Amino acid sequence: MSVSPPPLPASVLSGTPVVPGIAHAPALLVRGEVSESAILAFGDGGFSDPEAALAAYDAAAEAVAEGFAAKAAKVSGASAEVLSASAGLARDKGLRGGVKKALTSGQPLVEAVRAAVAQFVDVFTAMGGLMAERATDLHDIERRVVAHLVGEPEPGVPTPDQPSVLVAADLAPSDTAGLDPTVVLALVTERGGPTSHTAIIARQLGIPCVVGVAGAVGIEAGTPLLVDGTLGSVELRPDPVEAHRRVAQDRAERALLESWTGPARTADGVAVKVLANVADGESARTASQAPVEGVGLFRTELCFLNRQDEPSVEEQADIYAPVLEAFADGERYVVVRTLDAGSDKPIAFATHEGEENPALGVRGLRLCYDNPGLLEHQLDGIAQAAARTGTPTWVMAPMVATAEEARDFAARVRSRGLKAGIMVEIPSAALLANRMLEEVDFLSIGTNDLTQYTMAADRMATDLARLTDPWQPAVLRLVAITAEAGRHAGKPVGVCGEAAADPALACALVGMGVTSLSMAPASVRAVGATLGKVTMATCVEAAEAALAATDPQAARAAVRALLEA
Ligand code: PEP
Ligand code: MG
Fold first, then answer.
1. Among the bound ligands, the one closest to the CA of 400
2. 520 close to 277: Cβ distance less than 8 angstroms
3. Cα(162)–Cα(219) distance, integer angstroms
4. pLDDT of residue 1 exceeding 50
5. What is the pLDDT of residue 332?
6. Gyration radius (Cα) of the chain, Å
7. Which protein residues have their CB within 5 A of the ion that is ligand 2?
8. 83: Cβ–Cβ under 8 A, 6 or more apart, which residues?
9. HEC states along 375-389?
10. How far apart are the CA of 205 and the centre of ligand 1, in A?
11. Which atom of ligand 1 is found nearest the CA of 496?
12. What is the pLDDT of residue 133?
């Protein structure tokens, strides 16, 4: 008589929750590497000379680029941009030059590709921030090119043949762009933080996502998983009946959220402005369809990522006007942020080259220290667009550290008849929020950078997810100081970092005195509906509980318990 083995016990891994929701499906593993045996069999490729090897590289790189371009054609928005950028990188002449040089010096083709990529990765990594993220892209291109050379299928995300949870060490931008949320039900990564690329794409797709999950790469393909993007847990081999019950409950709750139409009010009628973060005219038009009362953050630098020279005032007005136009209904307003160039967002015509530590360097408002024209022209462009559209326009500066900077900026903005504010992203600005409010009309807390600078942890560093968490008590303390200063001054204090998109944290932020929350439109309904279920008194209790907690996990649990009670 044969005895069947006992079922493997369930176990639970935990990480940083970034997109709420529950999913139950088998694990689909992202194949990371080309097999070593295929590379060994390929050897030096048997090419007659470096020219022949370079021709093989060209064919492989072109095939990879075409693959990205084909994927880009099937999607739109940020996903399409990411894929097109990857196609461009695969065709990059500098990269090809590196391969050619290594081939000429006698290296076999696969090694030549790896050497050229390594050289570029070093340069990008040294630049830090968003450029360092391009290193993930480059490695992805290297694996794909090598796969073509040795005759293997490209590594990366396999096409799921059933609804699955995608599990990976980390995901390259080109992996996450173009994912189909009807078959990829959730994302789980071993590395990555709340502001990582994986998190941003998951938020756009609206699928549950947990990052920084220790042990994720050890999960075996096909293992049934229950992913809770609110708690940050990944349960292996859950009880199927209980898993189905939780998924059904989550689905019902989400359906309820979809019917939320705004405007945002707590259950006892306290108004909170829920706003959208936008990047250009197209995203503003899409956002204007969501139940938002305006735009809380228009990231103007994103309009110029590929621009070599400074646009004229008229050109800038033409670029900003469509964003303002989308909200020109007489009811809504737009907060425009002046150029936040530098560090993770290098802009050719503004960024200072070769800084040792660009996140602490000349970025954001600091760029106008030695180039005041840059700010003046932009403010002229914004003022023109505001006059053209009639949309109430508030203007804020990024990376303000001193009250003197706030005063100078406010004078320039007000001289153009616009409302002036600053972002609170540097701890000094939070600590001096009361003095900042003597200079400006409003504050907007950028929790992404405020967390980075408070915790001294690079927001893009995939290994520091536990630190780059806006639920960190020190970050919350600074937010509370800022909100309290706003209440005292009777001036608006908003949050426009990713923290505003977390429904539970949003309640605690409102309890601290935050008056507006700005986020990706995909998160608006969840945040608005959650606020509608709780009273202001509960929000205040949630704020107190979060501030009293010793760590982010305890803060999340305490707030969740209060909101569910
Ligand atoms: C922030 O830092 O929180 C913010 C909203 O600005 P960005 O993410 O564009 O740096
Ligand atoms: Mg910022």
1. 2
2. yes
3. 18
4. no
5. 98
6. 25
7. 425, 446, 449
8. 68, 69, 71, 72, 75, 174, 177, 178
9. HHHHHHHHHHHHHHH
10. 20
11. 5
12. 65
